[in-house]
Amino acid sequence: MLDLTTSNLTSRYSWETLDQDQDALRWLESTVLPPYLSTCRWFAGKARQQEAFRVAVMHGIGLGADAVAFLAIVEVVYADGETERYLLPLSFIETDQPDASEIPSKGILTPAEFDQKSGLLVDGIYDERFRLALYANLAGENVMPQKAGQVRFYRGRGLAADDVDTTIISRVLPVDSSNSALAYGVPHQPEKYFLKLYRKLFQETNPEVDLVSFLTEESQFSHIPAYAGSIVWEQEHTPDITLGMMQLMVENQKDSWSQTGDYLNDFLYAVPNRLFTIREDVFDRVELLGRRTAQMHLALYSPKSDDNAFKPEAFTDEYRAFIIRRIEALLERRYAMLIDNYTKLDPLAQRLAWVFMEAKEMIDEFIEDFRHRPLESLRTRIHGDYHLGQVLATDNDFIIIDFEGEPESSITERKIKHSPLKDVAGMIRSYHYAVSAKLFGSTETENIDPDHLQRVSERWYNLIRDTYMNAYLETIGNPHPLYKNSNEFNFLLLVYLLEKAVYELGYEISYRPAWVKIPLKGIMDVIREIQKIQTADPNRDSEVPRLQMGLLETKKQ
Ligand SMILES: Nc1ncnc2c1ncn2[C@@H]1O[C@H](COP(=O)(O)OP(=O)(O)O)[C@@H](O)[C@H]1O
Ligand SMILES: O=P(O)(O)O[C@H]1O[C@H](CO)[C@@H](O[C@H]2O[C@H](CO)[C@@H](O)[C@H](O)[C@H]2O)[C@H](O)[C@H]1O
Fold this sequence. Notes:
By secondary structure, this protein is of the alpha+beta class. The chain is 41% helix and 21% strand. It is built from 14 helices and 18 strands. The strands form four sheets. It has a seven-stranded antiparallel beta sheet with strand order 7-8-12-13-11-10-9. Strand 7 (143-145) and strand 8 (150-155) form a beta hairpin. Helix 5 crosses helix 11 (450-476), helix 6 (317-341) packs antiparallel against helix 8 (360-372) and helix 12 (486-511) packs antiparallel against helix 13 (517-536). The protein is globular. The termini are far apart. The model is unreliable at 1-5 (pLDDT under 50).
């Protein structure tokens, strides 16, 4: 019988039978999960109106000595009828267990009592027995039959044979993101493996597993943390669902966004003295990232692959229509968002917003050009969400992480092949962000005329972008089937730059209004290039007016 007088979970049955304990499960769904999930950083549905929480499935994971934890698949139903599924490992720590007092409060769902044994119902990642069980199952490549299908543990090349039957150390990493991360190691190297437990689940293999396992097992590209295994829920006649992935852990890492920020400090401090300084090692680093990006793209270009998931494809009408629909939908939402938020923007952002709105016809014509222009370049799987924050900087090199794809895209969209220039566009947008955020957000420059700052940041950006692009192109080699010729290259880069900057505009209006001018400036640069293409086209017979870019040169308001 369930005690309904407190919010604690009390059941007369034992913890090990929770998956069949209907009363306890209903109590969990109605009383424990809603407040708990709302505190979890990884629960993406916080801001949506939630209708119901359901424990859809409970997979049992043995912890040794008859103990068990569960991988609960929690289904969240929203008011608009949409549902999402999240992974929540559940463990029961009895009060007298030695580590009961060490569970952080964010890991505790509720005090609980099962079969008169008191303890805490916790997120399993905080239970060392559960962490070690995951590792042992990965190392042993175990398959665990469940009521619904099976949970299978795959072991990848990255997991060393010496680390199979040995003492393992584990901890939860304080990574505050949309997933959870665990570190594993051996006594002389306690942080050797990085296990990501995916929280929001796709009804398919996570694209990150596709890409990281492909690059580790089928290519020579070594600038990712090697694939060490994955945890998959498999059912007959249903696509596999990835629950977690293990890779090697990168030591002493800092991401390239912070590293570029450090390099930009020297530049920033010189600006008030009207000096333009960039250390040479900045160019070396940027060049190296250009080379690594190209090597990643060459590794993903796999024309001889038997696997259709990786075979290069042409620019079909279907693909073009998909990109056009996406850009048009983004544009429509962004125009509306700009109108709604116009008064919140600073004067520079307002001026840029005007030019963007006025360029609508020109952009529409550019999109039509993309629909019909003959293109012989190719599309492959790509990183998909490539920016400076996704590249870890080691002492002398770079390691690329987070191949999950764009946060806003569906699983089908994330598996679509694109021109690798979509990644290139992501990275050069990121360099533009880095310099703009530094120059426009620092006290050192607060008294400097914004138009002057704009010119200075543009000079830095142009130099860095060209350095990155030259290294990229040199490494790709010319000619290469990925890119038919420089005309196609330049045209496609503009398409993806436009898509990325328009996407970013929405992100900034929603989350960082002070930064709206950064993507707007990015859009402006694309518009200038579009204007050049359209003006140079001898066959062009259009009424589209030239843009009044002079608006941007207006001095202080
Ligand atoms: N293999 C790794 N080794 C060390 N740290 C990593 C590794 N992979 C990711 N990280 C760290 O974890 C953070 C989150 O990882 P990421 O793959 O971006 O996950 P998410 O998609 O959940 O944000 C990264 O910013 C980085 O600091
Ligand atoms: O990192 P996520 O995959 O969650 O991506 C989202 O957040 C990013 C910010 O963290 C955002 O990226 C934009 O800002 C970055 C600097 O903070 C910059 O380096 C990127 O170039 C820029 O796009 C990303 O757009 C958003 O989807």
